[in-house]
Amino acid sequence: MKKQSIEHTHLLILSLLAGEDMYGYQMITELARRSQNVFSMKEGTLYPVLHGLEKQGYVEAYQQAAESGRMRKYYRITPLGLRRIEDFKEEWKEILAIYQF
Question: Can you give the pTM of this predicted structure?
Answer without folding.
Answer: 0.83
